[in-house]
Amino acid sequence: MQQRNGELVNTEPNAYAKAGVDTQAGDRAVELMTAAVARTMTPNVFGGVGGFAGMVDVSELKNYRKPLLATSTDGVGTKVAIARALDIHDTIGQDLVAMVVDDIVVVGATPLLMTDYIACGKVVPERIAAIVRGIAEACEYVGVPLLGGETAEHPGLMGPEDYDVAGAATGVVEADHMLGAHRVRRGDALVAIASSGLHSNGYSLVRKIVADAGIGLEDHVEEFARTMGEELLEPTALYTTACLALAEATDVHAYCHVTGGGLAANLARVIPEGLQARVDRSSIRVPVTFQVLGRLGSASWEDLEDTLNLGVGMIAVVPEHAVDRALRSCQESGVKAWVIGDVVDNNDDVLPVHAHTTTRTVSGTKGVSAGSVRISGDYALA
């Protein structure tokens, strides 16, 4: 107890604080992040920051003939361990938004809102605010409000420096505009859109490769022209704006977000039964990041392509006649795009793109009964 202005004031931590939960630190974190979150608000947001629930006005959905709500949730996996080790926390937020919102756009949906959840062992206001600031800046970039969130302190369950992040998003698409395997046809072209690096998948393998090689996160890597940690923390590309613009500009049949499992496993999810996507490895110029990691880990290209994106972060499946317009649209959106293959009948008696090299066929991935992906040739090196 202390005396202030003639009154006794209890300055001892309350029982909750003694148990390890600092609600005042949580309040301070909210103060630090409020401005960044406020910048994501769109005219459709109803109410402000701080309520028990976030709300959006969806009156415009009355103009849809048959609106479908699309939803997705995800995290950023063990990439968080790199951020914690380097004490750099403002890039993880973009990774989270990309992993969640770019799944929404795959079906052609326009995102309506996003929420986030951060669990930590101890609330450090500046750290939590940096994470949320990264989330908010990415939301602002793709035009989706960060409508709500939660920071939960879990002392005893997580260490003081531990944290993890997750997010969820909801979007809307007109039923007859929905993209997916049902639209894909024989003769369609596969247009690859470049990744920004490793994105947010395969980090358990990546971290093991780096640790086994004895390379520190702060060690300079000549091929990267920066430290290993800086390379590994390169944020995931945000495709939402470019993909929505592409779908508006020309006929897109399907998108494939290349996340966990690599290109073939994810592409197979949007190829209908009876059809096969042919991918020419030689059309993919593998960035130096993947080359260095493969060399350090003595990993085969097959192992790498089953885990990492190898330079392709999104694929648009478009009719052959739409290829030129698709490439122009991507260029106008500031993303690099090129053709990596096509779609054929599954029973076509066609030779692989490169008969003298390893050809693999991938199907039945992610629990989806669909078509297959045949990948052949040798990767080009950047």
UniProtKB/TrEMBL annotation:
Pfam families: AIRS, AIRS_C. It catalyses: 2-formamido-N(1)-(5-O-phospho-beta-D-ribosyl)acetamidine + ATP = 5-amino-1-(5-phospho-beta-D-ribosyl)imidazole + ADP + phosphate + H(+). GO terms for cellular component: cytosol. It is an enzyme of class 6 (ligase). This is Phosphoribosylformylglycinamidine cyclo-ligase. It comes from Ancrocorticia populi. InterPro entries: PurM-like_C_dom, PurM-like_C_sf, PurM-like_N, PurM-like_N_sf, PurM_cligase. Residues 69-173 form the PurM-like N-terminal domain. It is found in: Cytoplasm. One of its GO terms (molecular function) is ATP binding. Keywords: ATP-binding, Cytoplasm, Ligase, Nucleotide-binding, Purine biosynthesis. The gene is purM. Pathway: Purine metabolism; IMP biosynthesis via de novo pathway; 5-amino-1-(5-phospho-D-ribosyl)imidazole from N(2)-formyl-N(1)-(5-phospho-D-ribosyl)glycinamide: step 2/2. Residues 186-351 form the PurM-like C-terminal domain. GO terms for biological process: 'de novo' IMP biosynthetic process; adenine biosynthetic process. The keyword Signal does not apply. Belongs to the AIR synthase family.
